[in-house]
Amino acid sequence: MADNKATFDARLKQLERTYQVRMANGVDHVVQSDGLIVARARRRAPRIPFKGLFTMVVALIAFKVIVLLYLGEMAYNQRIDMMRAGTMLDRAGAWIMQADVVSRTLAAQIDRGVANVLMMR
Known about the structure:
Elements: H1 2-22, E1 27-31, E2 37-41, H2 50-71, H3 73-84, H4 88-97, H5 101-120
Antiparallel strand pairs: 1-2
């Protein structure tokens, strides 16, 4: 009899743990077609920090534009080529920092804008 109670208690404890894990995110109460109200566990959506990722991409593009404006496109490409000849980490950095269409276009627009402002003075 004691064995039956021990296995029952173990099963009951496992059910409690499973219930706590499933209900940790809260519940939604749903009324079924027969009028019965049922509590269902909320599903946890994967948490991807889109705002943070977007901010990092914008900051990277802004950094590339600033470096492109400061060095010029030829010197920038020479430095990227030097990085491509380096270690694996250097090659990864060169791949990330290579001048793309967006950074080139923004650098050209800013360069033209600054030139126009300076010519007006």
